[in-house]
């Protein structure tokens, strides 16, 4: 492929300069490759399943994206522990009763909010770098989850399970809900004072401070937002998979960061987008599905995953640096 | 013949031990458990069993102390440092569930050189001075195919759910399953995914590959993934195949519900987390001066249609079917029974 360096005016070409477009192209390519391999079998089902599971990545991915946007070194590593604790809390509170669904969901989000506050206290008051602070917070949270949940598998209320597994015209209801949520969060990022402040702080905290933005308050709200979303994800995930378990959040640590990067957001902060999180989440899920369908061995599968992710990031990253 | 005679020997040893004199020999000894991970239900049950059995052993004066230590990060370096601390703290024996079969060898050697008995189990270490209580994981894979050949003589397509890629246990169980497929050629592995021994991960991986698969007769597993597989089949609206379970409570619970509803039949196999207590007794026996071979094999815990209810009743919610081993069990294993 030739480099598309020249400034072009057609809408299609303008579209191609969006940093997130590459994750969607990647997802589409991987999906088509899978369909070709199966001879068209299960095309719709694969997409439907991918939408469902990507939704979980998107919920935590968007939160992680806000945190990463606030500048170098900002990252939330407490997400897996947060998912484990919030999921267990929601299931124990709901105790399988439909009437308690709302209360359980609110509790999971509030649990996330509390974790976010705790993270920020460590970062700000104790001056611990975010990586260390959120990692050590995650040890404490995971220990609470172990002591509190004891790996207890309480079944979610049937109504909630039906809701998260429901389909409207074979589109998962969960995906529609998360789509609405992400549209709302995209609005927050691009059109609200808080969202612009997040980007400004990420680009240059000193300049942002001088422009009258409270850097501390912006970062505080961002850590709380990320943790609240992870809490919501914990409750949803537990509802989807028939109960909370201690290690259900484990894979969301790296995945949450990967979808941010593959989605075309800058790891250094200050430049991010919500659509890319969707593209990257679909890409990540479809990639594993493709390699599983091809039946390649674990070693090849891991190497292929790594190589393809690097390829997508290089292409997408090359674009954004080209834009200056 | 040898079975009977070894049983008699074991019983004889047991009788001698229980008569009291030999027990006193270890009453002043301190045993430590060095554990690399505690973040799943199996490890939680393992620690709980250790606690139950060793507390009683300490109260009965069999040993002076049996303290469990768990590292936070499942890192070999961290566990090596922990073992060095245990050496300094003056334990007489260290029982290890290791993060790596090789990376702890240096620390284990240091412990041996300091005159400390090292017994590794589940996650074993290959340093020659240590004892190993290993699991025959290959056999755990092979018995699944033997069971299927008996249950579905006509054979069919299999979906294999593997564990965590790159881990020794995963390779071994997988090799056992391949061996079984080679033996029972009417079965064919139509698809394979990694479920990481976690229901949620297994559910996700199975849901992804299902649309591209032909009809599946059975699912072979490694434990901790059966319930997730069942959920994925249900969500895809496909008939539930025979899914081999791995002794987790949620898996057994699901099996029981299906059995009551439509007579669903399967089997379940895994290692009882109580193997930590077997390791404890083996360490105690070595301290007691008994001759113990360096390599021992743990029996695995298999649950069948008729033993399902009994096992489910004794399995804690969210836990794993478990057996706590006694001194006599340890002596049987040492005797090679």
Detailed description of the structure:
The complex is a heterodimer of chains A (324) and B (337). Chain A is an all-alpha fold and 324 residues long. Chain A is 73% helix and 1% strand. Chain A has a single domain (20-29, 43-318), classed as ABC transporter involved in vitamin B12 uptake, BtuC. Chain A has a two-stranded antiparallel ribbon with strand order 1-2. Chain B has 337 residues and is of the alpha/beta class. Chain B folds into 2 domains: 2-122 and 272-303 and 317-334, 3-Layer(aba) Sandwich (Rossmann fold), CATH 3.40.50.2300; 137-270, Rossmann fold (3-Layer(aba) Sandwich). Chain B has helices at 2-18, 41-59, 76-88, 105-113, 137-151, 168-183, 199-209, 226-235, 249-262, 275-287, 308-314, 327-334; strands at 30-35, 65-70, 93-97, 117-121, 131-135, 156-162, 187-194, 218-220, 242-243, 268-270, 295-298, 301-303. In chain B, the strands form 3 sheets. Chain B has a 6-stranded parallel sheet with strand order 2-1-3-4-5-11, with helices on both faces. In chain B, strand 8 (218-220), helix 8 and strand 9 form a beta-alpha-beta unit. Residues 15-24 of chain B have low confidence and may be disordered. The interface between A and B is large, with 42 and 38 residues.
């Amino acid at each position: 492929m030739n480099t598309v360096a020249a400034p072009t005016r057609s809408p299609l070409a303008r579209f191609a300069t969006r940093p997130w477009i590459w994750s969607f192209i990647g997802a589409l390519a991987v999906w088509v490759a899978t369909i070709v391999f199966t001879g068209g079998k299960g095309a719709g089902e694969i997409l439907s399943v991918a939408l469902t599971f990507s939704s979980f990545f998107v919920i935590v991915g968007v939160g992680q994206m806000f945190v990463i946007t606030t500048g170098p070194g900002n990252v939330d590593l407490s997400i897996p522990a947060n998912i484990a604790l919030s999921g267990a809390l929601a299931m124990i509170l709901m105790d399988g009763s439909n009437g308690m669904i709302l209360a359980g969901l609110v509790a999971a989000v509030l649990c996330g909010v509390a974790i976010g506050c705790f993270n920020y206290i460590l970062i700000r008051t104790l001056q611990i770098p975010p990586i260390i602070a959120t990692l050590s917070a995650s040890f404490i949270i995971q220990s609470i989850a172990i002591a509190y949940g004891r790996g207890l598998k309480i079944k979610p209320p049937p109504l909630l399970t039906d809701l998260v597994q429901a389909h409207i015209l074979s589109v998962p209801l969960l995906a529609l809900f998360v789509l609405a949520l992400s549209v709302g969060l995209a609005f927050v990022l691009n059109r609200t004072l808080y969202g612009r402040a997040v980007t400004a702080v990420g680009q240059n905290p000193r300049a942002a401070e001088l422009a009258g933005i409270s850097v501390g308050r912006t970062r505080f709200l961002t850590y709380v937002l990320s943790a609240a979303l992870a809490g919501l994800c914990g409750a949803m995930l537990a509802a989807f998979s028939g109960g909370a378990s201690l290690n259900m959040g484990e894979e969301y640590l790296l995945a949450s960061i990967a979808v941010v990067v593959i989605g075309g957001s800058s790891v250094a902060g200050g430049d991010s987008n919500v659509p890319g999180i969707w593209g990257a989440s679909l890409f990540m899920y479809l990639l594993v599905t493709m390699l599983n369908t091809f039946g390649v061995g674990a070693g090849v599968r891991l190497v292929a995953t790594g190589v393809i992710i690097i390829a997508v990031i290089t292409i997408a990253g090359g674009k954004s640096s080209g834009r200056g | 013949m040898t079975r009977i005679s070894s049983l008699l020997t074991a019983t004889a040893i047991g009788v001698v031990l229980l008569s009291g004199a030999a027990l006193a020999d270890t009453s002043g000894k301190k045993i430590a458990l060095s554990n690399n991970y505690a973040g799943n239900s199996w490890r939680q049950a393992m620690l709980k069993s250790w606690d139950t059995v060793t507390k009683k052993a300490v109260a009965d004066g069999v040993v002076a102390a049996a303290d469990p230590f768990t590292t936070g990060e499942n890192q070999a370096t961290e566990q090596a440092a922990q073992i060095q601390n245990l050496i300094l703290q003056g334990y007489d024996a260290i029982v290890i569930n290791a993060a790596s079969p090789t990376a702890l060898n240096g620390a284990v050697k240091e412990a041996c050189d300091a005159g400390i008995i090292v017994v590794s189990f589940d996650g074993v270490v290959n340093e020659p001075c240590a004892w190993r209580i290993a699991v025959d994981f290959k056999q755990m894979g092979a018995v699944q195919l033997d069971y299927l050949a008996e249950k579905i003589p006509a054979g069919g397509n299999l979906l294999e759910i593997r564990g965590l890629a790159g881990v020794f246990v995963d390779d071994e169980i997988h090799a056992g399953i391949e061996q079984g497929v080679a033996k029972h050629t009417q079965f064919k592995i139509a698809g394979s995914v990694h479920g990481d021994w976690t229901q949620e991960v297994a559910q996700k991986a199975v849901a992804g590959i299902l649309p591209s698969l032909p009809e599946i007769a059975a699912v072979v597993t490694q434990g901790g993934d059966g319930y997730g597989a069942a959920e994925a089949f249900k969500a895809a609206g496909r008939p539930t195949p025979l899914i081999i379970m791995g002794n987790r409570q949620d898996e057994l619970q699901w099996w029981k519900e299906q059995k009551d509803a439509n007579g669903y039949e399967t089997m379940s196999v895994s290692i009882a987390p109580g193997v930590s207590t077997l390791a404890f007794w083996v360490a105690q026996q070595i301290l007691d001066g008994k001759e113990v071979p360096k390599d021992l094999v743990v029996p695995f815990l298999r649950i069948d249609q008729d033993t399902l209810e009994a096992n489910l009743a004794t399995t804690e919610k969210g836990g794993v079917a478990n057996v706590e081993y006694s001194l006599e069990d340890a002596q049987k294993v040492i005797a090679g029974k």
